[in-house]
Structure formats: C-alpha cells, structure tokens
Amino acid sequence: MFEEATGDLTNVLYDIALAGKIISGYVRRAGIVDDVLGSAEKTNVQGETQQKLDVIANETIKQAVAHTGRICVMASEEEDDPIPCVSNPDGRYVLMFDPLDGSSNIDVNASIGTIFSIHKRSEDPTATALDHTLQPGTNQVAAGYIIYGSSTVMVYTAGQGVHGFTLDPTIGEFRLLNPDVKVKPSGKYYSVNESNFSRWSDGYREVVRHLKGAVGGPANQKNARYIGSLVADFHRNLLSGGVFMYPGDTKNPNGKLRLQYEANPLAFVIEQAGGRASNGRTRIMDIDPTELHQRVPLVIGGVNDVQFVEDMIVATDGDG
Ligand code: AHM
Ligand code: MG
C-alpha cells in the first residue's frame, strides 16, 4: 500500500481547496465587484442558463488542476464532454465536479457549493476520456464539497471518515474544526421540493404524508427544510440529521440531480458518515453510469430515514 502512496491524492485535494478559496473570494465579493452576479447569457449541456459565477467557478477549478500532472481527465457539469488534460495524459486521477451547485441561489445571497468526485484512472490501456469518467461511485477514492455559507467549509472523505475544514479568513487556510462527522440514523428534518408532489409516484406521496404527520401519527413526523441548494440542504442534514429527497416524477423520470457530479460524491460522504444514499430502491454507488450527465433520483441521509423511504416506495410502488 505504501509503495503506491505518492501524495498525489492529497495534492489533488489541496488543488481543490485552493480553487475553493478563490471561488469563495468571488462569492464574498458578489454584488461588490462587476461581472460576478447575473446570467452569463449562455446555456450549458442540460440547457440551463449559466450564471457568471458558474463560469468563473468552472474555469477556476480547471486552472487549479489542469497542469499539475495529477489529473488525466476532468468532467464538469457545465461542459458537454470530458476534458482530457493534454499536458499530462498519464495523470493518475480523474476529477468530476459541479463547480457551483445551486446557481439559482447566487443572486439572492443563499448558500451555494462546489461538489467533487475523484476516481483513479481506468486500468484499461485503451480507455477513452469518457471511459475514465463512466465509473461507478464505489470506485471513488475521495469526494466532498465546499459550501460557501456563513463561513466557507470544505467537507471531504478519502474513505476514512468525513472531515470538515473551515476556511479561516484571517490566515487564508482551512482548519480542521469538524473531524470524523457522523450523521444521526434518524434525524429531525426532511428536505424535498414539495411543489412536485402532484407529479410523484404514489410511494413518494405516501412518504411525504408520513413525514409531515398527515398520516401515520407523529412517529415519523419531521420538520421541513428545503432551500433548493443541494450542498446547503445536504450539509444541514449531515450535521443536524435528516433526509433529502429529489425523486423522479412524471416530467423528469430520473429527477434532476446528476449521478456523477452530485449523487455519487455525496453518497460517498454520507456512507462514510454512517448514513445511506439510494435511488429509492438501489444503492447510489452501485449504479453503473452509462452517460456522463445522467440523472438519478436521490434519497440521502441517516440510515433509518433512508430505509423508511425505501420500504414505503417498495411497499407502495412495487419493486420497480
Ligand atoms: P444546478 O446544479 O443547476 O445548480 O441544479 C441543482 C440544484 C440543487 O442544488 C438543488 O438540490 C436542486 O437543483 C433544486 O432543484 P429544484 O429547484 O427543482 O427544487
Ligand atoms: Mg448542480
């Protein structure tokens, strides 16, 4: 094991932390300096309007890792195709990221975040750039996010627990202030965009009726919290306990969130914190990706909370 330990992975995490500091600087100056807030008047691969900060964050991360020799291929939620690092095709790692998740919250000063997922390069010598990125979540060697909230916090796992680092602006460094984070098996919050209720399956409607105490009595009742910024909703539930859901519905059968940029990295974090992540029936990290930008329904949180949702989905909607 030690023969392989070159320090490359640690340095990739430092590179991402550096990008996070730079992005945090832009976020903190949003509205103060020009060219940070508002639409970039472009659309990304999913047809969504890009914000200027989406574009800035995307470029910042690419610049932080592209020439280090450590990454062979990157993929970004904001780019159509995988990005080979042409100056270092032999880099040992693959980096996938959502540069600035929760863009709709940028202009209203709510928390947003960067999500990242790191794999080793495929061992297949004929692997294309796309092949390197189409690996299941179980292959991740590290993953995490940086939340730009009341403070800037980087949370990551490299498979040995989950650790939270707060950016201390007085020294410009991340400090380990929240080591070995664990999520409660059952928490007090549920987070879901309930305006989609009429388009959900009977199973998800039944789940939410229970979580709001409309049926089944107070046993499963929780408080509702949903800001529409995945990193912020996830971070709150990680620390305070709860379950986040973004189900599929009749309009979007696989929901909204992306397997490789959002669901898998957060699944790795939640599992390392003692929780679970599921698409309602199957463990997220066991799903074999077939497309870089594929979407997946997501149920993520404490073990008992996710189990409750899965049981009710299967009991109501069947095995799928
Ligand atoms: P984005 O990656 O384009 O920012 O979209 C993802 C965001 C998540 O942060 C959040 O959980 C979700 O979209 C909210 O969607 P909705 O507004 O449909 O509830
Ligand atoms: Mg996103």
What secondary-structure arrangement, pairings included, does this model have?
Blueprint (H helix, E strand, L loop, with lengths): L7 H21 L10 E5 L5 E3 H14 L5 E6 L6 E2 L8 E9 L10 E9 L8 H5 L6 E9 L3 E6 L4 E7 L4 E6 L10 E3 L10 H10 L11 E2 L5 H11 L1 E5 L12 H14 L3 E3 L19 E4 L1 H15 L3
Parallel strand pairs: 3-5, 11-12, 11-13
Antiparallel strand pairs: 1-2, 3-4, 5-6, 6-7, 7-8, 8-9, 9-10, 13-15, 14-15
The structure holds 2,5-anhydro-1,6-di-O-phosphono-D-mannitol and magnesium ion.
Magnesium ion binds next to strand 5.
Task: Provide an overview of this structure.
The protein has 2 domains: 8-178, Fructose-1,6-Bisphosphatase, subunit A, domain 1 (Fructose-1,6-Bisphosphatase, Chain A, domain 1, 2-Layer Sandwich), CATH 3.30.540; 189-317, D-Maltodextrin-Binding Protein, domain 2 (3-Layer(aba) Sandwich), CATH 3.40.190. It is 28% helix and 25% strand. The protein is built from 7 helices and 15 strands. The strands form 3 sheets. It has an 8-stranded mixed β-sheet, sandwiched between helices. Helix 1 (8-28) packs antiparallel against helix 2 (52-65) and helix 4 crosses helix 7. The chain is globular and about 60 Å long. The model has no long low-confidence stretch (mean pLDDT 93). Magnesium ion binds at residues 77, 98, 101, 262.
